[in-house]
Write a structure and sequence with these properties.
This protein is 46% helix and 13% strand. The chain is α/β, with parallel strands linked by helices. Strands 5, 6, 7, 8, 9, 10, 11 and 12 form an eight-stranded mixed β-sheet that branches. Strands 2-3-1-4 form a four-stranded antiparallel β-sheet, covered by helices on one side. Helix 7 crosses helix 8. The chain starts with 14 loop residues before the first helix and ends with a strand. Keywords: Cytoplasm, Methyltransferase, RNA-binding, rRNA processing, S-adenosyl-L-methionine, Transferase.
Amino acid sequence: MKSNQKPVKRVKTSPKNTALSAKNQAVRTTQNVRAVAAQIILQVLDQGKSLSALIPEMQQQVKPQDLPLLQEICFGVCRVLVRLEWIIRLLVDKPLKGKTRIVHCLLLVGLYQLLYMRVPEHAALNETVNAIKDLKSENFRALTNGVLRRFLREQENVLAVVDKHWQTNHPDWFVNKLKKAYPNWRDIIDANNQKPPMWIRVNQQHCTTENYRQLLLAESEINAFSAENPHALRLENPSAVQNLPHFAEGWVTVQDVHAQWSGLLLEPQNGELILDACAAPGGKTTHILEQAPAAKVVALDVEESRLKRVHENLARLKQKAVVICGDATQPDSWLPQAAEQIVGRKSAVQFDRILLDAPCSATGVIRRHPDIKWLRQESDIEQLVALQRQILTALWTTLKPNGVLLYATCSVLPEENSRQIAQFLQDHPDAKLEPLPFSQDKSAVGFQFLPQENGGDGFYYAKLRKLA
């Protein structure tokens, strides 16, 4: 967004004046962090854009020290949106629509600070009202000030009305699907509404999990807890990666504990040809290579821009893989290129193992990406199921006899998971379902992890072997 600061008067160029010009330019492009947060939330709610795309794009508009505040507000508002919307409906007589929607979003920002953050009330209120200037909505300064001050005066009565009935803070279509699938659906809702814990994966080539836990405590005074997953540690409190000993050298990677099972269940072996389909951002690719450094790994993703992260992760861990941009539904379009880089010629190749982290609704990682609740639509699910089936069918032809395909999603919806695999097994007599170590139910089709407070995210796994 263009700045509303007055242009700097031109002066003759000199080292001193150049420095002043740079400083003035920084002043012109920096906005009130609450104003930027309101703009981001507006684009999430009204334009269907994601926080993971918007925050990196707009973070240059705030001071570096304000970035954590920007993230906390944006993620927090999306997490408790329904409750905040109820409050606004009680306090604002006429809905703010059209061009005034930005003021509505600013009220969301103000209320979130007053309810959920440790920002002093006067600072939260004054800075939110001052953000009106950067949003070019000066006519609504009095309204914004009045609504927030009224909330502070009447908070107890307002919340008594708003919280009279339990709120899911989830869209109704998703809640209805959970009700049909899980008797403990309320536990899933509650877990989704919590802030996520921070998990790290310890690179066993450098250090054992227990030794790294002790290193964390000794060098960084960070307490961590182990889990059933042998490579995982949960930090007592989230921390910047710069505080993790030897992070830059690849000793650890930030990855959810349930996501970490993908590399272990695949059981990669040195010398094998392995495909990591839908590989970006590369966490699973690097885990495969940590366990089998001499494996020949192809990291495939359909989005070129996302492959940059794969290259960065491989470089940090000093690993090598063949990284290819291609459509997993069309193996013939990229398989010759992969073969040329692996065996030196364009020829037909088949994989010993395939990890398919399939495109999905991401309904298992809502607590990490709360905007998913408002971006995802019920109509998306049928399209995703069809795409998953396409990819599964296409990649199955590239798997060697007796090879293994590990199907994974970060969804909790049965149609993307157990029902998807049950249908695939019915359609492919040469596919056999392999048992999983943590599954006690022999009749179950794969295994569904559900999000848990202080635990992992929602993930699904099914391990398929191709019969000779």
